[in-house]
Amino acid sequence: MLKIEDLHVSYGPIEALHGISIELEAPEVISILGSNGAGKTTLLKTISGILTPTKGVITLDGVVLNGMEPSKIVKLGVVHVPEGRHIFPNLTVKDNLILGGYFGNATQNRENMEFVLHTFPVLKERLNMKAGMLSGGELQMLALGRGLMGNPKLLLLDEPSLGLAPIITSEIFKTVKKLTKEKGFGVLLVEQNARKALDISDRGYVLVNGRIELSGKSEELKENPEVQKLYLGGKNVKSGI
């Protein structure tokens, strides 16, 4: 489904990603772990067409995404839910969701709206409320719901737990895992909460300074002493990455 080969991305003269290669097959959930500045958000922005790679190839179902306009990438089924949610606070919940289905037809949008409101009942209760009045957890549900309105084949999630209470974080992550099975899309998850990310993902990659230093099944990464030390709160383990 998604294939990234030898991806390099620069901000001016500074290279942020150095030879990234990743593969994802729906309905996989893949987590991207790393500290601030490791290149995680840069990776998602490049896949969605916001940034242009200097080298390498990104394909979705064999279609090359390099150089394609973000709007065309969305039409192919790549939906980006960015860090910070970026909802429209002065629009209603309903209008925010409608915008997520901008490229869909009336039948798709109606079906997707029903699915989103079934998945997040609280949004149905808040449908005519301005989005800026929602709580942090409700805003994240709205951001996810808006993403689902885009009929994703691949959902790019950037820090969905940011600023949320632990109980809300758990609910959001369980919902993401459930949705991949119900709808059959793939998820590329960037997340600081490494434990939660590995709990719901099938595989993971660890980025360090723009390079992949570790990769493997999520259960294996949770047992890796380097990952435990750097991301899971382990102690007394010598770091090699």
Task: Explain what you see.
It is a single chain. It is built from ten helices and ten strands. By secondary structure, the chain is of the alpha/beta class. It is globular and about 45 Å long. It has helices at residues 40-47, 70-75, 93-100, 106-119, 121-125, 136-148, 166-183, 194-200, 218-223, 225-231; strands at 2-11, 14-24, 29-33, 55-60, 63-64, 78-81, 154-158, 186-190, 203-208, 211-217. Helix 7 (166-183) links the parallel strand 7 (154-158) and strand 8 (186-190). It has a six-stranded mixed β-sheet with strand order 6-7-8-3-9-10, with helices on both faces.
Main sheet strand line-up = 6-7-8-3-9-10
Largest sheet: 6 strands, mixed
What series of H and E elements makes up the topology? EEEHEEHEHHHHEHEHEEHH
Low-confidence segments, given as residue ranges, are 235-241
User: What is the number of E strands?
Assistant: 10
Mean pLDDT: 93
How would you classify the helix and strand content by structural class?
alpha/beta
Q: What does the radius of gyration come to? A: 18 Å
Which word captures the global form?
globular
Helix content: 25-40%
Give the amount of beta strand, in percent.
25-35%
Distance between the termini: 29 Å
Number of helices: 10
What's the quick description here?
This protein has 241 residues and is an alpha/beta fold.
Secondary-structure map:
Elements: E1 2-11, E2 14-24, E3 29-33, H1 40-47, E4 55-60, E5 63-64, H2 70-75, E6 78-81, H3 93-100, H4 106-119, H5 121-125, H6 136-148, E7 154-158, H7 166-183, E8 186-190, H8 194-200, E9 203-208, E10 211-217, H9 218-223, H10 225-231
Parallel strand pairs: 3-8, 3-9, 6-7, 7-8
Antiparallel strand pairs: 1-2, 1-4, 4-5, 9-10
